[in-house]
Amino acid sequence: MRTDTPQTIYRKDYTPPSYWVDTVEMGFDLDPAITRVATRLTMTRNRDSRNKSLVLCGEALELVQLRMNGKPLTKRAYTLHDGTLEIFNAPDKVTLEIETLTHPDRNTSLMGLYVSNGNFFTQCEAEGFRKITYFPDRPDVMAKYTVMLRADKKKYPVLLSNGNLIEEGDLGDGRHYAVWEDPFKKPSYLFALVAGQLVCQEEKYTLQSGREVLLQVWVEEGNLDKTQHAMDSLKNSIRWDEERFGLELDLDRFMIVAVGDFNMGAMENKGLNIFNTKYVLANPRIATDADYAGIESVVGHEYFHNWTGNRVTCRDWFQLSLKEGLTVFRDQEFSADMIGTDSGRAVKRIEDVRVLRQAQFPEDAGPMAHPVRPDSYVEINNFYTVTIYEKGSEVVRMYQTLLGRDGFRKGMDLYFQRHDGQAVECDDFRAAMADANDRDLTQFELWYSQAGTPRVTVDTHYDPVGRKYELTLSQSCPPTPGEDRKLPFHIPVKVGLLNSHGSDMPLHLEGHAQAGTTMVLELTKEKQTFVFTDVPEQPVPSILRDFSAPVILEIDYTDVELAFLMANDSDPFNRWEAGQRLAMRRMLELTRDVQDGHVLADDDGDEPVLTESFRAMLDATALDSAFREFALTLPSETVIAEQMDMVDPQAIHTVRRFLRRSLASALRIDWLVAYQSNRTPGTYSPDAASAGKRGLKNLALSYMIELDDIEAHVLAQTQYDNANNMTDRLVALTALVNSNAPGKVAALDTFYNEFENEALVIDKWFMLQATARTTDVKAVRKLMKHSAFTLKNPNRARSLLFGFCNGNPSQFHAVDGSGYAFWAEQVIALNAINPQVAARLARSLDRWRKYAPVLQGKMRAALKQVADTKGLSKDVLEVVTKSLAN
């Protein structure tokens, strides 16, 4: 922990390292209490560096010995200060031998080398390697690694590290060893080791080139029956990357290891990917449809990093989106392609945009707003954000929208041709895209350097005599911390025009050849007018098809036009979007009524346009069930809050529940028909079609339970009792818990007793209760006393604390401020255990200025309480100080 003012790191201050590392040899004597690490580095002075000293990073280490070029170094030759080891007057060529001690069983931060359930694991991104040995721990220092692991053979029979296994054997004293060699240069953040009691599922896999590779999924004993989906996802990922981008697995083996204690979802360490169990373990008994989809996505993401992140990596951490934004785009495209249908791709696109709007748009409008390529940070772990990942992915997607799929592939090919084996910048990726397609993308750089969500306003004019239709697009972007004035972005706006029959019109843009029925307009100025000719009637515009840019679209549709688009638009995204706009408009009206003191009555639920649009969607059985589920889901309370100048969580919650009850009552028969007709009898399968049917069926159940009558209770209880998969069972349990059904307490107890040995399911059990409508702070405190709860496990902490603080806004934002006092208490407690997880929880109050005055004072007091805590980590301190300042 640090008590001094943490240093701010600036991108403009980047300087190359004083020394390059050529090779790294490491020997580990693994013991939970004291692990001894011997490291030999061969290093060469960087002639471009202005720093003459050799500087290494280290944290929480005991330095036992330090030798340079075969001679011990006296303390006069180096200094240890504030996490750095500086050696003076080092020669141009250096062989440095370092011996350190570390204490894995005390490492609750889960960064560096740590112990989980008796096994050893590592997490080195972003700056965890310095907790293992002294090293120039930065991504632009790339070297080849050879690693020897030594440990008690009985306790730790499995010894894994990056690359290829080249030797193993017994040491004759009850211990054994394994030597691993990674043939590719890599930065230290990609180093990994695993040791312990593990078993694996393995398969031989033949690449398109004919080369055979070994694929392994390592888990703890008893979990082998939950690895097949992860293995299948890995094979699909390998095949997809070969077919879509011509990229082949470059090692002889590829390993996935699952661990229950992990700060993130997974980590792409070269050839040895370490995963949170949440994204590996699945079978119908414990995993939902969402879990299966999440595993496929994350396995793909980490595998795709082998090229976009490992073979080509970041020059510095400011370029994080170079690998993460690009790889999120790749995993999104992979998941969409795995579904294999146009409607399936559309559902995946909607799902990704919902995440963007619910999490990234608020971030872009808050005190932690930062560009896709930040200009500064205090703690880099705080910048593994939805802006870096999801918005970064949207920036990459815009390249494909502007250049076309073939043009994007050409840019990717040139990127690898130029930069394989290098640590580069976001500008290098942009240059490859521009040069491969002979395009000027200079203005596009602003997507990397400017924070905030642009707003695109649409004005239209139709000239029936001249048969011309003018589409005027204007862009603006509100100020963000440190950025008052924004320059115009380069925004691709995909458009179509619908005639009165709901069909797409052929597009004739003045000065351009006919472009079919959808075209991309390039908005590069603050205001531009695009003129379409030969337009026979007043059209209904379909703007920002496929969500072609991460912007807020402002267009003045009537309710009738929105209903028309919801029923007819050929673009599935905009068809969904029309329904969301229609519902949002009504909910905002009702929220204002509630704030004005109006008590909602049954006649307020008379929603002819919205109700009939929902009825038509329920009856549109030709449409994909998954799409209909998304179209019939109301905007979340978080998304509604973003549309308000002053957030009133209680009013929002009241209105959303009221509207759901109104739709449940008006469409009761239709919901029941949808429920019955989307059953999936027989053996469970997580395929997209079956998952879509379950999704629509379970959405219908969630609406019907709003009526809270005997029929709905029986339906939910029957589904719970008879479910043959976790998806149906968990939805039914959720319905019971959020009702007055007499069997809900018994169902909660039964569920826990059946799954008490399945950690991932018990996480769901805690999350379900944390987000229940009636769960207040007292209930959460009671759940924290449950024998299955621990703050030390990130998954368990996220399921209960994050579930309540981020997923139950009406209860968390209780007017008495009890939620905020609880939040402060838990952030401080987590800070002492795991600063990275604590900082994530700290983000729950970073938008405090957007709330009603009665809440603001209590939120500020809670933030101040955390900020004034002694021994606060820089992770948490950065979040709370920025929240208070902006």
TrEMBL record:
It comes from the Bacteria. GO terms for biological process: proteolysis. Keywords: Aminopeptidase, Hydrolase, Metal-binding, Metalloprotease, Protease, Zinc. Its cofactor is Zn(2+). It catalyses: Release of an N-terminal amino acid, Xaa-|-Yaa- from a peptide, amide or arylamide. Xaa is preferably Ala, but may be most amino acids including Pro (slow action). When a terminal hydrophobic residue is followed by a prolyl residue, the two may be released as an intact Xaa-Pro dipeptide. The keyword Ligase does not apply. Residues 230-444 form the Peptidase M1 membrane alanine aminopeptidase domain. Residues 561-885 form the Peptidase M1 alanyl aminopeptidase C-terminal domain. CDD domains: M1_APN. Residues 87-190 form the Aminopeptidase N-like N-terminal domain. It is an enzyme of class 3 (hydrolase). Residues 452-555 form the Peptidase M1 alanyl aminopeptidase Ig-like fold domain. Its EC number is 3.4.11.2. Gene3D superfamilies: 2.60.40.1840, 3.30.2010.30, Neutral Protease Domain 2, Peptidase M1, alanyl aminopeptidase, C-terminal domain, tricorn interacting facor f3 domain. InterPro entries: Aminopeptidase_N-like_N, Aminopeptidase_N-like_N_sf, PepN_Ig-like_sf, Peptidase_M1, Peptidase_M1_dom, Peptidase_M1_pepN, Peptidase_M1_pepN_C, Peptidase_M1_pepN_C_sf. GO terms for molecular function: alanyl aminopeptidase activity; metallopeptidase activity; zinc ion binding. Aminopeptidase N is involved in the degradation of intracellular peptides generated by protein breakdown during normal growth as well as in response to nutrient starvation. NCBIfam families: pepN_proteo (TIGR02414). Belongs to the peptidase M1 family. This is Aminopeptidase N. It comes from Noviherbaspirillum cavernae.
